[in-house]
Amino acid sequence: MNKNPFGVGTLSGRGAAQPTRHGQRRQADRCVPQFIIDALIDFGEERFLGGECRSYSFTKSTWKRYAHYMGPAIAGHERFRNVYVVVAEDNSIITVAWRH
User: Which terminal Cβ of the chain has fewer Cβ within 10 Å, N or C?
Assistant: First the structure.
């Protein structure tokens, strides 16, 4: 039996990024579930921010690809299209935020 309610596969998170204390607080403060963080890293568009930091966010095409992967389970999660995550070179999550 498939115990994953969000789709048939699993998300890797490209090395299972670990949040910093600040990243954990921001994720909790902004009510962003972990599966969205993993999806951003797996499906989102990567942008280099300088140094070794990079951000991941959904674009129209990357959200479409993620929605196809998720299937009907994506219903009700559209609001997370505007979330982005900043990741350091050691794969630690620096912050999680909403685009406005």
Answer: N
Both tokens assigned to 69:
């992967």
Every domain of the chain and the residues it spans: 16-98
Cβ contact 10:70 at 8 Å: no
Q: What are phi and psi of 31, to 5 degrees?
A: 55, 50
CA distance linking residue 19 with residue 24, whole number of Å: 6
Distance CA 84, CA 46 (A): 10
Q: Which amino acid is at 61?
A: S
Taking the whole predicted model, whether its pTM rises above 0.70 is answered as yes
Residue ranges with strand state E in the chain: 18-19, 45-50, 53-57, 83-87, 92-98
- Strand bridging mode 18-19 / 92-98: parallel
60-72 pLDDT per residue, tens: 999 999 999 999 9
DSSP 2: -
Q: CB count, 10 Å around CB of 97? A: 17
